[in-house]
Write a structure and sequence with these properties.
39% helix, seven-stranded mixed beta sheet, binds pyridoxal-5'-phosphate, Aspartate Aminotransferase, domain 1, five-stranded mixed beta sheet, 385 residues, Aspartate Aminotransferase, domain 2, 16 helices
């Protein structure tokens, strides 16, 4: 193969992970186990002198090809795939935490991450405290005695962004491991490892897949950190990424950069036009240079209206925006906060962290931006009182 070394992410994502014999996609290696040619080969794999694939719960070539692409994209030494974003988040946390440890977490963290902290970690004697982003940047004692600083930037729902180099420096002083959920920005708009963060996590179900047909997760970091996950939480919890899902993710990564550019262009248009409307109180959508290292906005934003907008009416009047959870696919979606706030159960993070009932979250897809805006304008016109 010719040398395809380049600094450009879009070019690299098209060039790596080819198959054999001229196949420009890698094969789906759909097998549970890998047989060995000899007793000596088998024994060498078991005693650690060989790392040949043995069993798909821990190693698979299609999964490895996806992991190599993600490590490259995020600028990490290694990566490990999981069956879902929550599989990745829980495995990353459980590889480092022991009873008695403390976690410091951002407010407005992804709702199921909040539930993991409260419903799994807390009963095992691991306490999580929640803090505004500014406290991570400016409070010199916040991370004293903390094992893991668990970050999202921008956060879920209200999309506040934090100064990652500042937070990384605070964590290093106290010896805390920093983990960030980078699903919103993707490596196209933010590369946290280059900003000093230890571990990057993605719900690959979102932009990494990009096609709303996969649920998956991935963790990227140093060889040492990823080695811990490979040794402990990947094999022993077993939430492995499946070969076919990994293949779909490789397919998704090929177009990640142009898709993110398109999402950004539509989001720029929506953010500007929403901001000009008198009945819009707030547009939550951090853009390039809001914080160091953030180079663009993705298509996931939220808008806070005033009381003149009837949210249920707005949601039902939209034609191109479907009502649903998740985000990051080709299709546009709306998730009204009123729906999230109504979610049953004690551990409702939207109620805990306080989200206004006039907020809607939008995932702007790959449809024509003017079509989407015409849809939004028409729906707003019919839903205002
Ligand atoms: C969806 C999501 C997750 C969870 O990912 P799954 O793939 O659904 O398990 C984690 N973090 C964020 C920010 C998400 O939006």
């Amino acid at each position: 193969m010719p040398d395809k070394t380049t600094d450009d992410l879009a070019t690299r994502l098209t060039a790596i992970a080819e198959g054999a014999g001229g196949s420009i996609t890698p094969p789906i290696v759909q097998t549970s186990l890998f047989a060995f040619d000899s007793f000596d080969d088998f024994k060498a794999r078991m005693d650690g002198s060989s790392d040949a694939p043995m069993y798909t719960r821990v190693q698979n070539p299609t999964v490895a090809a996806f992991e190599a692409m993600m490590a490259d994209a995020e600028g990490g030494e290694a990566a490990v795939g999981f069956a879902s974003g929550m599989g990745a988040i829980s495995a990353a946390l459980m590889a480092f935490l022991r009873p008695g440890d403390r976690v410091a977490c951002v407010e407005h963290v992804y709702p199921d991450s909040y539930r993991f902290m409260e419903r799994i970690l807390r009963p095992f004697g691991i306490e999580t405290t929640y803090h505004p982003l500014r406290a991570f940047e400016d409070d010199p004692d916040l991370l004293k005695g903390v094992k893991i600083a668990y970050l999202e930037s921008p956060t879920s729902v209200v999309f506040q962004a934090m100064n990652l180099p500042k937070v990384a420096a605070q964590a290093k002083r106290h010896g805390a491991v920093t983990m960030i959920d980078n699903s919103w920005a993707t490596p196209v708009f933010q590369r946290p490892i280059e900003l000093g963060i230890d571990i990057v996590i993605h719900s690959a179900s979102k932009y990494i897949s990009g096609h709303s047909d996969t649920v998956a997760g991935v963790v990227i970091g140093s060889k040492d950190h990823i080695g811990r996950l490979r040794d402990l939480s990947l094999p022993l919890f077993g939430a492995k990424l499946a070969p076919f899902e990994a293949w779909l993710l490789i397919r998704g990564l090929r177009t990640l950069v142009p898709r993110m550019r398109q999402h950004r262009a539509t989001a720029d248009l929506f953010a500007d036009r929403f901001a000009a409307l008198p009945f819009v109180r707030r547009v939550n959508s951090p853009t390039a240079n809001t914080v160091p290292g953030l180079t663009g906005r993705s298509g996931l934003m939220s808008v806070e209206f005033d009381e003149s907008v009837n949210i249920p009416k707005l949601a039902d009047a939209l034609r191109f925006f479907r009502l649903g959870v998740s985000w990051g696919g080709f299709e546009s979606l709306i998730l009204p906060a009123q729906v999230g706030l109504a979610q049953a159960g004690e551990f409702n993070s939207m109620r805990k962290f306080g989200v206004p009932s006039t907020l809607v979250r939008l995932s702007l897809g790959l449809e024509d931006a003017e079509d989407l805006w015409a849809d939004m304008s028409a729906a707003l016109a019919t839903s205002r009182t």
